[in-house]
Protein backbone atom coordinates (compact mmCIF):
# COMPACT_ATOMS: atom_id res chain seq x y z
CA UNK A 1 0.00 0.00 0.00
CA UNK A 2 1.55 3.30 -1.09
CA UNK A 3 0.82 6.70 0.43
CA UNK A 4 1.16 9.16 -2.47
CA UNK A 5 -0.63 12.20 -0.99
CA UNK A 6 -0.79 12.90 2.72
CA UNK A 7 -1.71 15.86 4.86
CA UNK A 8 -0.82 16.16 8.56
CA UNK A 9 -3.21 18.49 10.35
CA UNK A 10 -3.46 20.14 13.74
CA UNK A 11 -5.82 22.82 15.01
CA UNK A 12 -5.98 25.14 17.97
CA UNK A 13 -9.50 26.01 19.10
CA UNK A 14 -11.46 28.00 21.68
CA UNK A 15 -12.69 24.79 23.34
CA UNK A 16 -13.44 21.10 22.86
CA UNK A 17 -16.94 21.13 21.30
CA UNK A 18 -16.89 21.18 17.50
CA UNK A 19 -20.46 22.44 17.16
CA UNK A 20 -20.06 25.34 19.60
CA UNK A 21 -16.35 26.27 19.76
CA UNK A 22 -14.26 27.69 16.90
CA UNK A 23 -10.83 27.33 15.31
CA UNK A 24 -8.08 29.83 16.22
CA UNK A 25 -5.16 28.35 14.24
CA UNK A 26 -4.60 25.80 11.47
CA UNK A 27 -1.35 23.95 10.84
CA UNK A 28 -0.86 21.76 7.77
CA UNK A 29 2.07 19.67 6.51
CA UNK A 30 1.53 18.44 2.95
CA UNK A 31 3.50 15.44 1.70
CA UNK A 32 3.43 14.13 -1.87
CA UNK A 33 5.75 13.28 -4.79
CA UNK A 34 6.77 16.95 -5.02
CA UNK A 35 8.08 16.92 -1.43
CA UNK A 36 7.04 18.46 1.88
CA UNK A 37 5.29 21.82 2.27
CA UNK A 38 4.16 23.59 5.44
CA UNK A 39 1.34 26.09 5.88
CA UNK A 40 -0.25 27.71 8.91
CA UNK A 41 -2.70 30.48 9.59
CA UNK A 42 -4.23 32.21 12.60
CA UNK A 43 -8.03 32.40 12.43
CA UNK A 44 -10.33 34.93 14.03
CA UNK A 45 -12.87 32.72 15.86
CA UNK A 46 -15.44 35.48 16.25
CA UNK A 47 -15.71 34.61 19.94
CA UNK A 48 -13.46 35.36 22.95
CA UNK A 49 -10.56 33.05 23.80
CA UNK A 50 -10.60 32.06 27.48
CA UNK A 51 -7.66 32.60 29.77
CA UNK A 52 -7.15 28.86 30.12
CA UNK A 53 -6.93 28.34 26.34
CA UNK A 54 -4.65 31.37 25.98
CA UNK A 55 -2.26 29.97 28.58
CA UNK A 56 -2.34 26.51 26.95
CA UNK A 57 -1.75 27.59 23.33
CA UNK A 58 -0.17 31.01 23.70
CA UNK A 59 -2.78 32.39 21.28
CA UNK A 60 -4.40 35.54 22.65
CA UNK A 61 -7.43 37.58 21.62
CA UNK A 62 -5.06 40.31 20.45
CA UNK A 63 -3.22 37.87 18.15
CA UNK A 64 -6.36 36.86 16.29
CA UNK A 65 -8.03 40.28 16.25
CA UNK A 66 -6.76 41.06 12.72
CA UNK A 67 -6.67 37.43 11.51
CA UNK A 68 -9.14 36.34 8.79
CA UNK A 69 -12.30 34.48 9.77
CA UNK A 70 -12.46 30.86 8.64
CA UNK A 71 -14.78 31.58 5.71
CA UNK A 72 -12.05 33.79 4.19
CA UNK A 73 -9.49 30.96 4.17
CA UNK A 74 -11.91 28.04 3.68
CA UNK A 75 -11.27 27.68 -0.06
CA UNK A 76 -7.48 27.59 0.38
CA UNK A 77 -7.66 25.14 3.30
CA UNK A 78 -9.98 22.86 1.34
CA UNK A 79 -7.64 22.91 -1.66
CA UNK A 80 -4.71 21.87 0.55
CA UNK A 81 -6.65 19.03 2.18
CA UNK A 82 -8.77 17.64 -0.64
CA UNK A 83 -7.82 14.32 -2.21
CA UNK A 84 -5.26 13.48 0.49
CA UNK A 85 -5.19 11.08 3.41
CA UNK A 86 -6.11 13.29 6.38
CA UNK A 87 -3.80 12.40 9.32
CA UNK A 88 -4.22 13.92 12.77
CA UNK A 89 -3.71 13.00 16.41
CA UNK A 90 -7.16 12.31 17.87
CA UNK A 91 -8.43 12.89 14.34
CA UNK A 92 -12.10 12.95 15.35
CA UNK A 93 -11.43 16.29 17.05
CA UNK A 94 -9.65 18.01 14.15
CA UNK A 95 -11.83 16.51 11.41
CA UNK A 96 -14.99 17.34 13.34
CA UNK A 97 -13.97 20.99 13.82
CA UNK A 98 -13.04 21.42 10.17
CA UNK A 99 -16.26 19.80 8.92
CA UNK A 100 -18.30 22.16 11.10
CA UNK A 101 -16.32 25.23 10.00
CA UNK A 102 -16.60 24.22 6.33
CA UNK A 103 -20.33 23.68 6.75
CA UNK A 104 -20.77 27.17 8.24
CA UNK A 105 -18.80 28.59 5.32
CA UNK A 106 -21.00 26.77 2.78
CA UNK A 107 -18.49 24.09 1.78
CA UNK A 108 -18.95 20.33 1.77
CA UNK A 109 -15.78 18.61 2.96
CA UNK A 110 -15.11 14.88 3.25
CA UNK A 111 -11.85 13.01 3.58
CA UNK A 112 -10.39 9.61 4.38
CA UNK A 113 -9.15 10.03 7.95
CA UNK A 114 -6.33 8.33 9.83
CA UNK A 115 -6.01 8.87 13.58
CA UNK A 116 -2.45 8.52 14.90
CA UNK A 117 -3.76 7.77 18.41
CA UNK A 118 -5.51 4.67 17.04
CA UNK A 119 -2.51 3.88 14.82
CA UNK A 120 -0.15 3.97 17.80
CA UNK A 121 -2.45 1.77 19.87
CA UNK A 122 -2.63 -0.83 17.09
CA UNK A 123 1.11 -0.87 16.41
CA UNK A 124 2.33 -0.56 20.01
CA UNK A 125 -0.32 -2.24 22.22
CA UNK A 126 2.26 -2.85 24.96
CA UNK A 127 2.15 0.86 25.87
CA UNK A 128 -0.63 2.33 28.00
CA UNK A 129 -0.40 5.94 26.83
CA UNK A 130 -0.62 7.23 23.27
CA UNK A 131 -1.06 10.98 23.70
CA UNK A 132 1.27 13.29 21.79
CA UNK A 133 3.58 13.87 24.76
CA UNK A 134 4.00 10.09 25.15
CA UNK A 135 4.86 9.74 21.46
CA UNK A 136 7.40 12.56 21.75
CA UNK A 137 9.18 10.74 24.55
CA UNK A 138 8.84 7.23 23.16
CA UNK A 139 9.92 8.01 19.59
CA UNK A 140 12.38 10.83 20.39
CA UNK A 141 10.47 13.46 18.38
CA UNK A 142 11.88 16.97 18.07
CA UNK A 143 9.59 19.64 19.52
CA UNK A 144 9.51 23.06 17.87
CA UNK A 145 6.41 24.78 19.31
CA UNK A 146 4.18 22.52 21.38
CA UNK A 147 0.45 23.35 21.48
CA UNK A 148 0.70 25.48 18.35
CA UNK A 149 -0.95 24.14 15.23
CA UNK A 150 2.03 23.88 12.88
CA UNK A 151 4.36 22.71 15.66
CA UNK A 152 2.06 19.81 16.53
CA UNK A 153 1.40 19.01 12.85
CA UNK A 154 5.19 18.68 12.45
CA UNK A 155 5.26 16.23 15.38
CA UNK A 156 2.61 14.05 13.73
CA UNK A 157 4.64 14.11 10.49
CA UNK A 158 7.76 13.13 12.45
CA UNK A 159 5.90 10.24 14.09
CA UNK A 160 4.86 9.03 10.65
CA UNK A 161 8.49 9.14 9.57
CA UNK A 162 9.57 7.12 12.62
CA UNK A 163 6.99 4.46 11.75
CA UNK A 164 8.57 3.99 8.32
CA UNK A 165 11.80 3.03 10.09
CA UNK A 166 10.40 1.15 13.13
CA UNK A 167 7.53 -0.87 11.62
CA UNK A 168 7.57 -3.44 8.86
CA UNK A 169 6.07 -1.92 5.67
CA UNK A 170 3.52 -4.73 5.33
CA UNK A 171 2.30 -4.31 8.91
CA UNK A 172 2.05 -0.51 8.59
CA UNK A 173 0.14 -0.78 5.30
CA UNK A 174 -2.20 -3.42 6.71
CA UNK A 175 -2.90 -1.36 9.86
CA UNK A 176 -3.54 1.86 7.93
CA UNK A 177 -5.85 -0.01 5.58
CA UNK A 178 -7.83 -1.43 8.51
CA UNK A 179 -8.13 1.97 10.23
CA UNK A 180 -9.21 3.82 7.09
CA UNK A 181 -11.54 1.16 5.66
CA UNK A 182 -14.98 2.47 4.81
CA UNK A 183 -17.75 0.77 6.78
CA UNK A 184 -20.02 -1.74 5.11
CA UNK A 185 -23.24 0.12 4.38
CA UNK A 186 -26.69 -0.97 3.21
CA UNK A 187 -27.10 -0.71 -0.56
CA UNK A 188 -29.89 1.86 -0.33
CA UNK A 189 -28.13 4.18 2.10
CA UNK A 190 -26.08 7.17 0.92
CA UNK A 191 -22.52 7.03 2.30
CA UNK A 192 -22.64 10.79 2.85
CA UNK A 193 -25.36 10.23 5.45
CA UNK A 194 -22.87 8.30 7.59
CA UNK A 195 -20.20 11.00 7.37
CA UNK A 196 -22.64 13.53 8.78
CA UNK A 197 -23.68 11.47 11.80
CA UNK A 198 -22.72 13.04 15.15
CA UNK A 199 -20.32 11.26 17.50
CA UNK A 200 -21.96 12.25 20.78
CA UNK A 201 -24.86 11.06 22.93
CA UNK A 202 -28.42 10.88 21.71
CA UNK A 203 -31.05 8.93 19.79
CA UNK A 204 -30.89 7.54 16.25
CA UNK A 205 -33.84 6.66 14.02
CA UNK A 206 -33.87 4.35 11.00
CA UNK A 207 -36.51 4.98 8.34
CA UNK A 208 -37.48 2.72 5.45
CA UNK A 209 -39.47 3.07 2.24
CA UNK A 210 -41.97 5.96 2.34
CA UNK A 211 -40.31 7.13 5.57
CA UNK A 212 -41.72 4.21 7.55
CA UNK A 213 -40.17 4.19 11.08
CA UNK A 214 -38.10 1.02 11.37
CA UNK A 215 -36.08 1.36 14.56
CA UNK A 216 -35.24 3.80 17.35
CA UNK A 217 -32.12 3.37 19.48
CA UNK A 218 -29.92 5.33 21.86
CA UNK A 219 -26.17 5.56 22.38
CA UNK A 220 -23.40 7.55 24.03
CA UNK A 221 -21.53 7.25 20.70
CA UNK A 222 -24.12 7.69 17.97
CA UNK A 223 -22.00 7.20 14.86
CA UNK A 224 -20.19 4.20 16.27
CA UNK A 225 -23.46 2.55 17.34
CA UNK A 226 -25.16 3.11 13.98
CA UNK A 227 -22.21 1.57 12.14
CA UNK A 228 -22.28 -1.39 14.52
CA UNK A 229 -25.74 -2.29 13.24
CA UNK A 230 -24.39 -2.69 9.71
CA UNK A 231 -21.13 -4.34 10.73
CA UNK A 232 -23.08 -7.25 12.21
CA UNK A 233 -25.68 -7.58 9.45
CA UNK A 234 -24.03 -10.72 8.11
CA UNK A 235 -24.21 -12.48 11.47
CA UNK A 236 -27.73 -11.67 12.70
CA UNK A 237 -30.86 -12.16 10.60
CA UNK A 238 -32.60 -9.30 12.39
CA UNK A 239 -29.75 -6.87 11.67
CA UNK A 240 -29.57 -8.01 8.05
CA UNK A 241 -33.31 -7.46 7.63
CA UNK A 242 -33.03 -3.99 9.14
CA UNK A 243 -30.05 -3.09 6.92
CA UNK A 244 -31.92 -4.14 3.80
CA UNK A 245 -34.88 -1.91 4.68
CA UNK A 246 -33.16 1.29 5.88
CA UNK A 247 -33.28 4.30 3.54
CA UNK A 248 -32.67 7.22 5.88
CA UNK A 249 -31.03 7.85 9.26
CA UNK A 250 -31.86 10.66 11.63
CA UNK A 251 -29.99 11.54 14.83
CA UNK A 252 -31.12 13.69 17.75
CA UNK A 253 -28.31 14.71 20.07
CA UNK A 254 -29.06 15.09 23.78
CA UNK A 255 -27.23 16.68 26.69
CA UNK A 256 -26.54 13.28 28.25
CA UNK A 257 -27.59 9.68 28.72
CA UNK A 258 -30.77 10.39 30.72
CA UNK A 259 -32.02 12.64 27.94
CA UNK A 260 -31.29 9.89 25.41
CA UNK A 261 -33.18 7.29 27.45
CA UNK A 262 -36.20 9.57 27.86
CA UNK A 263 -36.21 10.55 24.18
CA UNK A 264 -35.92 6.91 23.08
CA UNK A 265 -38.84 5.80 25.27
CA UNK A 266 -41.00 8.67 24.02
CA UNK A 267 -40.20 8.18 20.31
CA UNK A 268 -40.78 4.43 20.37
CA UNK A 269 -44.28 4.92 21.76
CA UNK A 270 -44.94 7.82 19.41
CA UNK A 271 -43.62 6.24 16.18
CA UNK A 272 -44.20 2.52 16.92
CA UNK A 273 -41.15 1.37 14.87
CA UNK A 274 -41.61 -2.13 13.51
CA UNK A 275 -38.21 -3.42 14.72
CA UNK A 276 -38.49 -2.23 18.35
CA UNK A 277 -39.66 -5.06 20.55
CA UNK A 278 -39.25 -3.28 23.89
CA UNK A 279 -40.90 -0.06 25.09
CA UNK A 280 -43.47 -0.23 22.27
CA UNK A 281 -46.41 -1.47 24.30
CA UNK A 282 -48.34 1.37 25.84
CA UNK A 283 -51.30 -0.34 27.44
CA UNK A 284 -53.06 1.15 30.44
CA UNK A 285 -50.51 1.11 33.23
CA UNK A 286 -51.83 -0.11 36.56
CA UNK A 287 -50.82 -0.69 40.19
CA UNK A 288 -51.76 -2.80 43.15
CA UNK A 289 -52.85 -0.63 46.06
CA UNK A 290 -53.25 -2.18 49.50
CA UNK A 291 -56.53 -1.15 51.06
CA UNK A 292 -57.47 -1.89 54.70
CA UNK A 293 -60.77 -3.78 54.39
CA UNK A 294 -61.01 -4.25 58.18
CA UNK A 295 -58.56 -3.44 61.00
CA UNK A 296 -55.45 -5.48 60.34
CA UNK A 297 -56.77 -6.96 57.09
CA UNK A 298 -55.16 -5.52 53.95
CA UNK A 299 -56.26 -6.53 50.48
CA UNK A 300 -54.83 -5.61 47.05
CA UNK A 301 -56.97 -3.46 44.78
CA UNK A 302 -56.10 -2.98 41.10
CA UNK A 303 -55.84 0.71 40.21
CA UNK A 304 -55.28 2.34 36.82
CA UNK A 305 -52.52 4.95 36.67
CA UNK A 306 -55.04 7.47 35.34
CA UNK A 307 -57.06 7.10 38.54
CA UNK A 308 -54.18 7.88 40.89
CA UNK A 309 -52.70 11.01 42.37
CA UNK A 310 -49.14 9.91 42.93
CA UNK A 311 -48.47 12.63 45.47
CA UNK A 312 -51.32 11.55 47.75
CA UNK A 313 -51.91 7.81 47.67
CA UNK A 314 -49.88 5.32 49.67
CA UNK A 315 -49.29 1.57 49.64
CA UNK A 316 -48.81 1.42 45.86
CA UNK A 317 -46.97 -1.45 44.17
CA UNK A 318 -45.93 -1.58 40.53
CA UNK A 319 -46.23 -0.18 37.91
CA UNK A 320 -47.41 -3.00 35.65
CA UNK A 321 -47.91 -2.61 31.92
CA UNK A 322 -51.40 -4.16 32.03
CA UNK A 323 -53.99 -5.70 34.36
CA UNK A 324 -53.00 -9.10 33.01
CA UNK A 325 -49.36 -8.49 33.90
CA UNK A 326 -50.34 -7.28 37.40
CA UNK A 327 -52.47 -10.37 38.10
CA UNK A 328 -49.76 -12.69 36.81
CA UNK A 329 -47.21 -11.06 39.13
CA UNK A 330 -49.53 -11.34 42.15
CA UNK A 331 -50.28 -14.99 41.34
CA UNK A 332 -46.56 -15.78 41.26
CA UNK A 333 -46.05 -14.02 44.61
CA UNK A 334 -48.98 -15.97 46.10
CA UNK A 335 -47.42 -19.28 45.08
CA UNK A 336 -43.95 -18.27 46.27
CA UNK A 337 -45.12 -17.01 49.69
CA UNK A 338 -48.11 -19.27 50.41
CA UNK A 339 -50.65 -16.46 50.16
CA UNK A 340 -54.39 -16.99 49.91
CA UNK A 341 -55.92 -16.54 46.44
CA UNK A 342 -59.30 -15.73 47.96
CA UNK A 343 -58.00 -12.89 50.15
CA UNK A 344 -55.97 -11.59 47.22
CA UNK A 345 -59.07 -11.42 45.04
CA UNK A 346 -57.61 -13.87 42.52
CA UNK A 347 -60.33 -16.44 43.21
CA UNK A 348 -63.94 -16.14 44.34
CA UNK A 349 -65.00 -18.55 47.12
CA UNK A 350 -67.80 -18.53 49.68
CA UNK A 351 -66.87 -17.28 53.18
CA UNK A 352 -65.31 -20.04 55.25
CA UNK A 353 -64.56 -22.20 52.24
CA UNK A 354 -60.94 -23.01 51.29
CA UNK A 355 -59.40 -21.51 48.19
CA UNK A 356 -58.09 -23.90 45.54
CA UNK A 357 -54.48 -23.08 46.48
CA UNK A 358 -55.21 -24.26 50.06
CA UNK A 359 -56.47 -27.56 48.71
CA UNK A 360 -53.12 -27.87 46.89
CA UNK A 361 -51.35 -27.00 50.16
CA UNK A 362 -50.06 -23.75 48.63
CA UNK A 363 -52.03 -21.47 50.99
CA UNK A 364 -51.51 -21.39 54.76
CA UNK A 365 -55.24 -21.26 55.40
CA UNK A 366 -56.16 -17.63 56.02
CA UNK A 367 -59.32 -18.33 54.01
CA UNK A 368 -60.49 -20.93 56.58
CA UNK A 369 -59.13 -19.33 59.75
CA UNK A 370 -55.97 -21.43 60.07
CA UNK A 371 -53.86 -18.28 59.82
CA UNK A 372 -54.86 -14.89 61.29
CA UNK A 373 -55.64 -12.43 58.49
CA UNK A 374 -53.29 -9.92 60.16
CA UNK A 375 -50.42 -12.41 59.71
CA UNK A 376 -51.45 -12.93 56.11
CA UNK A 377 -51.52 -9.15 55.57
CA UNK A 378 -48.03 -8.77 57.03
CA UNK A 379 -46.68 -11.50 54.75
CA UNK A 380 -48.44 -9.91 51.77
CA UNK A 381 -46.78 -6.55 52.49
CA UNK A 382 -43.38 -8.22 52.78
CA UNK A 383 -43.92 -10.15 49.53
CA UNK A 384 -44.88 -6.97 47.67
CA UNK A 385 -41.98 -5.02 49.17
CA UNK A 386 -39.67 -5.30 46.17
CA UNK A 387 -42.42 -3.94 43.90
CA UNK A 388 -43.19 -0.94 46.09
CA UNK A 389 -43.77 2.21 44.04
CA UNK A 390 -41.25 4.87 45.05
CA UNK A 391 -42.98 7.91 46.58
CA UNK A 392 -42.21 11.24 44.93
CA UNK A 393 -39.50 12.73 47.20
CA UNK A 394 -40.23 16.43 46.59
CA UNK A 395 -43.03 18.86 47.36
CA UNK A 396 -43.25 19.99 43.73
CA UNK A 397 -41.36 19.53 40.45
CA UNK A 398 -37.64 18.75 40.23
CA UNK A 399 -35.00 19.03 37.53
CA UNK A 400 -31.92 17.26 36.22
CA UNK A 401 -29.24 19.14 34.30
CA UNK A 402 -27.31 17.48 31.48
CA UNK A 403 -25.05 19.76 29.46
CA UNK A 404 -27.15 22.68 28.25
CA UNK A 405 -30.41 20.82 28.86
CA UNK A 406 -32.66 20.74 31.92
CA UNK A 407 -35.12 17.83 32.28
CA UNK A 408 -38.20 18.90 34.23
CA UNK A 409 -39.91 16.15 36.25
CA UNK A 410 -42.98 16.09 38.49
CA UNK A 411 -44.29 12.99 40.30
CA UNK A 412 -42.22 10.73 38.01
CA UNK A 413 -43.66 12.36 34.87
CA UNK A 414 -41.18 13.88 32.42
CA UNK A 415 -42.71 17.28 31.71
CA UNK A 416 -40.13 17.99 29.01
CA UNK A 417 -36.61 19.26 28.37
CA UNK A 418 -35.79 22.96 28.57
CA UNK A 419 -32.88 24.84 27.03
CA UNK A 420 -33.87 28.28 28.30
CA UNK A 421 -35.79 29.87 31.15
CA UNK A 422 -38.68 30.55 28.75
CA UNK A 423 -38.82 26.82 27.89
CA UNK A 424 -38.95 26.02 31.58
CA UNK A 425 -41.95 28.26 32.28
CA UNK A 426 -43.73 26.92 29.20
CA UNK A 427 -43.34 23.35 30.43
CA UNK A 428 -44.60 24.26 33.90
CA UNK A 429 -47.74 25.82 32.44
CA UNK A 430 -48.51 22.96 30.03
CA UNK A 431 -50.79 20.02 30.81
CA UNK A 432 -48.63 17.28 32.33
CA UNK A 433 -48.31 14.05 30.33
CA UNK A 434 -49.83 10.75 31.45
CA UNK A 435 -47.79 8.56 33.76
CA UNK A 436 -45.42 6.32 31.78
CA UNK A 437 -43.98 3.11 33.20
CA UNK A 438 -40.72 3.25 31.25
CA UNK A 439 -40.13 6.91 32.10
CA UNK A 440 -40.67 6.07 35.78
CA UNK A 441 -38.02 3.35 35.66
CA UNK A 442 -35.52 5.69 34.01
CA UNK A 443 -36.15 8.49 36.50
CA UNK A 444 -36.07 6.32 39.63
CA UNK A 445 -32.51 5.30 38.72
CA UNK A 446 -31.61 8.98 38.25
CA UNK A 447 -33.25 10.14 41.50
CA UNK A 448 -29.96 11.10 43.16
CA UNK A 449 -29.33 13.62 40.37
CA UNK A 450 -32.62 15.47 40.89
CA UNK A 451 -32.85 18.90 42.47
CA UNK A 452 -36.15 20.44 43.65
CA UNK A 453 -37.30 23.31 41.45
CA UNK A 454 -36.96 25.71 44.37
CA UNK A 455 -33.20 25.43 43.75
CA UNK A 456 -33.04 27.62 40.64
CA UNK A 457 -31.97 25.72 37.50
CA UNK A 458 -31.54 28.96 35.55
CA UNK A 459 -28.59 29.33 33.23
What does the model show?
It is built from 17 helices and 15 strands. It has helices spanning 51-57, 61-64, 70-81, 91-104, 116-123, 132-138, 149-166, 169-180, 191-195, 222-231, 237-245, 257-271, 323-337, 356-359, 373-384, 421-429, 437-445, and strands spanning 6-13, 23-32, 35-42, 85-88, 113-115, 202-207, 213-219, 248-253, 286-294, 297-304, 316-320, 398-402, 405-410, 413-418, 451-452. The protein has a 5-stranded mixed β-sheet. Helix 5 (116-123) packs across helix 8 (169-180), helix 12 (257-271) runs antiparallel to helix 17 and helix 13 packs across helix 15. It is elongated and about 100 Å long.
Could you give the topology of this structure?
Elements: E1 6-13, E2 23-32, E3 35-42, H1 51-57, H2 61-64, H3 70-81, E4 85-88, H4 91-104, E5 113-115, H5 116-123, H6 132-138, H7 149-166, H8 169-180, H9 191-195, E6 202-207, E7 213-219, H10 222-231, H11 237-245, E8 248-253, H12 257-271, E9 286-294, E10 297-304, E11 316-320, H13 323-337, H14 356-359, H15 373-384, E12 398-402, E13 405-410, E14 413-418, H16 421-429, H17 437-445, E15 451-452
- Under the CATH scheme, the architecture of the largest domain is 2-Layer Sandwich
Helix content: 25-40%
- SS-based class: alpha+beta
Mean pLDDT: 90
Please tally the helical runs, counting DSSP H or I stretches of 4 or more residues: 17
Overall geometry comes to elongated
- Please state the CA-atom Rg, rounded to the nearest Å: 30 Å
Amino acid sequence: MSFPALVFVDLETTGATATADRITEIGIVEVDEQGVREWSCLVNPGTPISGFIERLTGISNAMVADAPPFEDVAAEVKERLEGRLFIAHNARFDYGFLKNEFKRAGHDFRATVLCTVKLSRKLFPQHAKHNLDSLIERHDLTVSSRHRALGDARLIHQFWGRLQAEVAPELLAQTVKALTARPSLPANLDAAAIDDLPDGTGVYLFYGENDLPLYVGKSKELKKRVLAHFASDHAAAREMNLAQQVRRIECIETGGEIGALLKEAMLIKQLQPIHNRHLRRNEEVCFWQLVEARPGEWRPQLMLASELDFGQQEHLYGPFKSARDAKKSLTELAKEHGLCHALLGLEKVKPGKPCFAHQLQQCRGACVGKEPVSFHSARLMAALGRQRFAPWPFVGPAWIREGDEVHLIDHWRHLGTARSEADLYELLEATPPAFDRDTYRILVKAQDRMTPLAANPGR
